[in-house]
Amino acid sequence: MKKNWLVGISLALVLAVVGLSGCAVPDKVSLVAQEEGIWVTGEGEVTAVPDIATLSLGIEAQEATVAEAQSQATEAMNRVMAALTDNGVAEQDIQTQYFSIRQITSWVGEEQVVIGYRVTNMVTTKIRDIDNAGAIIDAVAEAGGDLTRVDSIGFSVDDPSVYYEQARQEAVADASAKAEQLAELAGVTLGKPTYIYESIQGSSNIRMFEAAVSSVTPISPGEVEISLAVQVAYAILK
After folding, report:
1. How many angstroms separate the CA atoms of 196 and 39, rounded?
2. Any alpha helices (H) in the chain, and if so which ranges?
3. Phi-psi category of residue 222: left, alpha or beta, with phi > 0 → left and psi -120 to 50 → alpha
């Protein structure tokens, strides 16, 4: 009786192993199936005139004590913020980017001593009227005086969805053309897409226009390039 019981357990274990092996086969088959076909990458690019300028600016003050440095930085930053809002920048388009209070040290002989403290307060400002960007920079520089810091300026499109639609059409058409050429060269018949993956590549400035001569800081938004790529797998008809 005991022998039959052991035989039953052994048989159950064998069936379990076979069952698990059988479950693993479809995964391998599907993996191989995913690798079959013609895989291509299509690219699409469109250009657009930016309607948003993003400005990184702020204040940096250094004094002998933290209190003195922070007081100077606070007063100057309040003037900068007022200059921004007075020139049409909405409060919700101003965001603190970086704030720090650091010791400034120097070596005196073989000893490192604290010679002061530096307070830095930087904000990111979104300027929706690009034509007014130069005037805003001038107003900020005047308000902050020698404590003013302007790190960078960038340009973008507030709603790029229309441009991405155009780039997407170009990318899919590019992928289709490449796949058809590969199928023809390989002597096979191209089937329908079995896999599509989109990758947005972002935007970059590609052309700058010369700004008109004036007493205001010249700012040229130029054009931005909006691009994306699609990876497509096509079946091969047999």
Report:
1. 10
2. 2-35, 66-86, 133-144, 161-186
3. left
What pTM did the predictor assign?
0.68
Question: In this structure, are 85 and 148 located in the same domain?
Answer: yes
**What domain range is 224 assigned to?**
35-49+160-237
Q: What is the pLDDT of residues 151-162, one digit of tens each?
A: 999 999 999 999
**Does residue 169 sit in the same domain as residue 191?**
yes
Q: What is the pLDDT of residues 208-237, one digit of tens each?
A: 433 333 467 888 888 889 999 999 999 999
* Domain assignment present for 26: no
Give yes or no: residues 45 and 96 share one domain.
no
Instruction: For 156-170, give one letter per residue: b (16+ CB within 10 A) or e.
Output: bbeebeebbeebbeb
Q: Does some domain include residue 210?
A: yes
Distance CA 171, CA 199 (A): 10
Within a domain: 1: no
Q: How far apart are CA 206 and CA 139, in angstroms?
A: 28
The domain total for the chain is 2
In angstroms, the CA 47 to CA 212 distance is 22
Burial tier of 39 (Cβ tally within 10 Å: 0-12, 13-18, 19+): middle
Q: What is the CATH number of the domain that holds 100?
A: 3.30.70.2970
Q: Hey, is 12 helix, strand or coil?
A: helix
Choice between 134 and 217, residue whose per-residue pLDDT is larger = 134
**Residue 213 backbone dihedrals phi, psi, to 5 degrees:** -75, 125
Question: Does 140 lie in the same domain as 192?
Answer: no
